[in-house]
Amino acid sequence: MSILNKVKNYREEERRLRWEGTFADYLEIIRDKPEVAQTAHSRVFNMIKDSGIEKKDGKKVYEFFSDEIFGLEEAIERLVEEYFHPAAKRLDVRKRILLLMGPVSGGKSTIVSLLKRGLEEFSRTDAGAVYAIKGCPMHEDPLHLIPQHLREEFFEEFGIRIEGNLSPLNTMRLEQDYNGKIEDVIIERIFFSEDKRVGIGTFSPSDPKSQDIADLTGSIDFSTIAEFGSESDPRAYRFDGELNKANRGMMEFQEILKSDEKFLWHLLSLTQEGNFKAGRFALISADELIVAHTNESEYRSFIANKKNEALHSRIIVMPIPYNLRVSEEEKIYEKMIKGSDMAHVHIAPRALRVAAIFSILTRLKESKKQGIDLVKKMRLYDGENVEGFNKIDLEELQKEYSDEGMNGIDPRYVINRISSTIIRKEVPSINALDVLRSLKDGLEQHPSISKEDKEKYINYIAVARKEYDEIAKKEVQKAFVYSYEESAKSLMNNYLDNVEAFCNKNKLRDPLTGEEMNPDEKLMRSIEEQIGISENAKKAFREEILIRLSAFARKGQRFDYNSHERLREAIQKKLFADLKDVVKITTSSQTPDESQLKKVNEVIARLIDEYGYNSTSANELLRYVGSLLNR
Ligand SMILES: Nc1ncnc2c1ncn2[C@@H]1O[C@H](COP(=O)(O)OP(=O)(O)OP(=O)(O)O)[C@@H](O)[C@H]1O
Ligand SMILES: [Mg+2]
């Protein structure tokens, strides 16, 4: 019922938004709200801008894209600032076809479809409202009615520049239906809809021999020629090509570089001059954003061809590389799985992360920088701290190759492998090892990976596996402690008490017996050794901690478990080291005794309740870690 209500509300909303009036009424609207008369490019830009811009690590994140597109903040920022923004200001880039260039399954189509769906919605808002001459198949801009010689005056009064001439069809209708009185012409508000072919179009080339330019620019309507007597009567022409229908909005041109040249020339004249030729008419003005996409090799061979030079200079290419951050890649997989019919399957926690590690490794290029291997680079890219490297190093790494992310494993491959694992395994649960195995097996059948790359990739599977081993061990160890955070906190407080007594040459008081004791040197060392602090360095380290502690106290801040990075690491490692033996015994005993069994069951319950496992994947994890620790 609620869905039917929603449909009803939508219908009512549309009815409420509807508007119809004369051109004279329309002029009053744009006097108040000149943005109504904006160009298609400007509307797209405002749509993106209005969704909001967030600042993250000094970078701009355009929220318009951020629910669907992950890890491409730089590419998106470039797309907006180098294309949409200047195009909205009527700068020259607007006169070029926007070509998204990137590797397969890198999100190009997703970006285009976000723009299309976005425009449909935006045209239903106040800020994105669009008006057109009623009954015009191209939803012509009403301002085209203003004659050329009055446009300068119009600009002075309204502050709006008019581009384009009244189309042959509307010129004729103006004479015949309105007696030449532009103020009487009926104007209506329109709502973009790809389904209804209003303001949004898609052109996809088919066989070049059979494809007709009519698909793009419309065609003569033979059924009405007899009635109107001539092919050059605009009433005998159907303005129903994609370019006609996408007027005022945007058109997606699929596989642009595969299409026949004659199609491209039409586009060029449209983008360059704002008009195109259809049938036997004078040029037809149109205002629309044209977006196309292609991959790198197709693009290279296109520009290598001298014949394409003129076209080339009228295209603006925006690279859309693969995402290079592990955490973002995980989000891509989650999104794709949520939208598929695998959504009911249990995918063990960390399985997608491990797949993401593999994918990112295949996309990264080895750095020439000292001391940095691919795994460290991957971590830095993902915003992790890597000992000995800082933000500046990260920026240098990112600048080292301009074409990083243009090849490697694509997200669709990973999702396909995951789904084939699910089908083969016949259980509604898969884990990280299943995924890695399947990624590896799939490489054999992958059609477009060279032998050389295949070897490299198999090696990356092994690296991802090693990463997983560490992740798995940590996960289990964490689950063994009743409350990990609590234990860490109390261990740290204990350490701090001892450090304080040590530095101030004080004694500690035993909380139970009240007896005075010396600082517990053994405890302090057992923590410090975890991060390699030598006997000679211990005093300096303890003093540094104490200084930090008092700095916090002075500012009235609480010094906690996360306040000192190295200390946190030491505490973490110490907790794990203590646990290692327990974990080892408990998980690998063939015949666990009663208390061991109880412990194992507790851990499994915790993995399920707190870490997102199910009983199958939790048992698998425990067995695997047991075998790792017994090696
Ligand atoms: N950076 C990304 N963020 C979010 N989703 C992504 C990203 N890259 C790829 N995807 C997802 O991968 C799938 C394939 O993407 P899409 O079809 O947009 O790629 P494409 O670049 O058009 O590929 P092709 O060249 O094969 O046409 C989609 O489900 C898309 O959502
Ligand atoms: Mg695509």
Automatic annotation (TrEMBL):
Residues 21-371 form the PrkA AAA domain. Pfam families: AAA_PrkA, PrkA. One of its GO terms (molecular function) is protein kinase activity. It comes from the Bacteria. SMART domains: AAA_PrkA. This is Protein prkA. It comes from Oceanobacillus chungangensis.
